[in-house]
Design brief:
Strand 6, helix 5 and strand 7 form a beta-alpha-beta unit. This protein starts with 14 loop residues before the first strand and ends with a strand. The chain is of the alpha/beta class. A six-stranded mixed beta sheet has the order 5-6-7-3-8-9, with helices on both faces. Strands 2-1-4 form a three-stranded antiparallel beta sheet, covered by helices on one side. It has six helices and nine strands; from the N terminus they run E-E-E-H-E-E-H-H-H-E-H-E-H-E-E.
Length: 233
């Protein structure tokens, strides 16, 4: 399983980050990080806990502004933020990203409901697509009207992944997406990330699990002490 890298001649990168710095208090979390992810590419980022991996993803998602350097998401970039719908992110606290009052089917279908009216599927079609996406991440046996509070942390993570896959973004950011899953479920998620890349999505996969990253990544970077470098083979 590996994403198919698309050359710069074929398509513009989904994200370009150059010289990105992020400072918290007196600590420099990111020290001039450079990262480019092209459509169809899976960029793996490994590193020890506390090395700044999650901070890097939040900057790439446009949720945190860098203290130095630039991040560009292509033509839709406005005032340092990506165009709506261009980026989907799944963070470690997946439960916190789910509306506690919504069913998992409604949550998963949210990206379809936010589409412009001309391209928005009807309610029944949105629900059918959500059920298929939930089944893809191994939740087909769960009542789709279940609320997040009744799910485990790993199940909430898979709901967030299903929602992200259904959004078909230009850039998909995944923070430790297999950490709360058993081996079988983790392998299924990695296959879905590979499939997303195969359809042209740029994927940035952050994980401390080097084997998981190696299984799907087109190339791998290592973040340690705020410094992002090419990982050793």
């Amino acid at each position: 399983m590996r994403g198919v890298r698309v050359s710069d001649e074929a398509a513009s990168p989904a994200v370009r980050a150059f010289g990105v710095r992020r400072v918290q208090g007196r600590r420099e979390i990111l020290c001039g990080a450079d990262l480019v992810a092209a459509p169809g590419e899976i960029v793996g980022v490994t590193g020890p806990s506390g090395s700044g991996k999650s901070t890097l993803l939040r900057v790439l998602a446009g949720l945190e502004a860098p203290d130095g350097g630039t991040v560009d998401w292509g033509p839709g970039t406005r005032r340092g933020r990506p165009a709506p719908g261009a980026v989907a992110a799944v963070f470690q606290d997946a439960a916190g990203s789910l509306d506690p009052h919504w069913s998992i089917a409604r949550t998963t279908a949210e990206p379809l409901a936010l589409r412009p009216r001309a391209t928005r599927p009807g309610r029944a079609d949105r629900r059918a697509a959500a059920l298929a996406a939930l089944a893809d991440v191994g939740l087909g046996h769960i009542d789709p009207d279940t609320r997040p509070a009744r799910l485990s942390g790993g199940q909430c993570q898979r709901v967030a992944l299903a929602r992200a896959f259904l959004a078909t973004p230009g850039l998909l950011l995944a923070d430790e997406p297999t950490s709360a899953l058993d081996a079988s479920a983790a392998a299924a998620v990695l296959r879905l990330l590979d499939r997303a890349a195969g359809s042209g999505t740029a994927v940035v996969l952050v994980s401390h699990d080097r084997d998981a990253v190696a299984a799907v990544a087109t190339r791998t970077l290592r973040l340690d002490g705020g410094i992002l470098t090419d990982a050793e083979p």
